[in-house]
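Bumping my old thread because nobody answered last time. Still need a sequence for this structure:
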């Protein structure tokens, strides 16, 4: 069995120019960007297409921009393939889980966009209240990294692939964690370009506020199972999704386990629907026997390349 999964990127996949050529070549993608501009009352499309990068990179802007670009890729895929490829599962990395809501028919794009804008605002404010960050640790096992966290107060935020674990915490905790990780034999430590300690207890103010927002929204049961960040299990009803959207703000993103679940369920092909190929690269490291690529290879097979904003 070779089932297909659609996966959606999270924050960090933004790049100036993302979606520009796509919108020029796809009417469906162009309509997504136009709708985003109308819903938000600002030119999000111009920010995606032209930057400036320092503004696009800000959490409050990056989150709706990446989600919009990802939905544009999704719309172009449906337009181009006309139902020829149907995912058995959808999954998104952190922010990408919101794009999965659109793909699974849980909420319309306009409502998800407003949710994401508020999520970005709340996370930005939480990051300003207690300055923190995130750092990727390469080459250490989970037990060793957990020991580092126990000593420093940092928190495991993402289990991305074999040997790639992301920590989150205050700047002081991360500085200490970096030193201990190097002593423990980490192959590489990489501070991430983010404005807060995402997926950690420092996001609790954002989580509490987001819980009130999510509680008031009418969600539909997903037409396609959404594989949860926090449990690596499929979400099949609206209430489970409601709990997930709250829990993932402070909880760990179990991306490796999510991919492994989908592979066990028969998925042999993953298409990254959105800007970049970060998740595709992670999946290839998780399981060499599956295929993973940006969906651009399906959208534009005739010219043998992907449009601007796909490759980073």
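Sorry it took so long. Here it is:
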């Amino acid at each position: 069995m070779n089932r297909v999964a659609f996966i959606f990127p999270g924050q960090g996949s933004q790049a100036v120019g993302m979606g520009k050529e796509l919108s020029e070549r796809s009417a469906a993608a162009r309509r997504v960007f136009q709708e985003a501009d109308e819903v938000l009352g600002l030119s999000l499309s111009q920010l995606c297409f032209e930057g400036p990068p320092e503004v696009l990179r800000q959490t409050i802007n990056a989150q709706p921009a990446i989600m919009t670009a990802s939905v544009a890729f999704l719309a172009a895929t449906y337009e181009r393939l006309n139902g020829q490829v149907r995912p058995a599962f959808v999954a998104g990395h952190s922010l990408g889980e919101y794009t999965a809501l659109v793909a699974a028919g849980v909420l319309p794009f306009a409502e998800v966009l407003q949710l994401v804008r508020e999520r970005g605002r709340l996370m930005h404010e939480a990051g300003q209240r207690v300055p923190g960050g995130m750092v990727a640790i390469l080459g250490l096992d989970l037990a060793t990294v957990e020991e580092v966290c126990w000593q420093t107060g940092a928190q495991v935020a993402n289990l991305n692939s074999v040997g790639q674990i992301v920590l989150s915490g205050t700047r002081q905790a991360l500085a200490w964690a970096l030193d201990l990780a190097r002593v423990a034999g980490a192959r590489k430590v990489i501070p991430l370009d983010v404005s807060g300690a995402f997926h950690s207890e420092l996001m609790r103010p954002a989580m509490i506020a987001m819980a009130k927002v999510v509680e008031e929204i009418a969600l539909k049961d997903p037409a396609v199972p959404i594989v949860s960040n926090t449990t690596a299990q499929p979400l099949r009803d609206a209430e489970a999704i409601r709990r997930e959207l709250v829990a993932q703000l402070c909880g760990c993103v179990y991306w490796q386990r999510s991919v492994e679940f989908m592979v066990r369920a028969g998925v042999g092909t993953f298409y990254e629907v959105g800007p970049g190929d970060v998740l595709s690269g992670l999946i290839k490291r998780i399981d060499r026997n599956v295929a993973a690529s940006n969906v651009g290879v399906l959208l534009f097979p005739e010219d043998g390349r992907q449009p601007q904003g796909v490759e980073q």
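The chain has two domains: 3-128+200-303, 132-191. Let me know if any region looks off to you.
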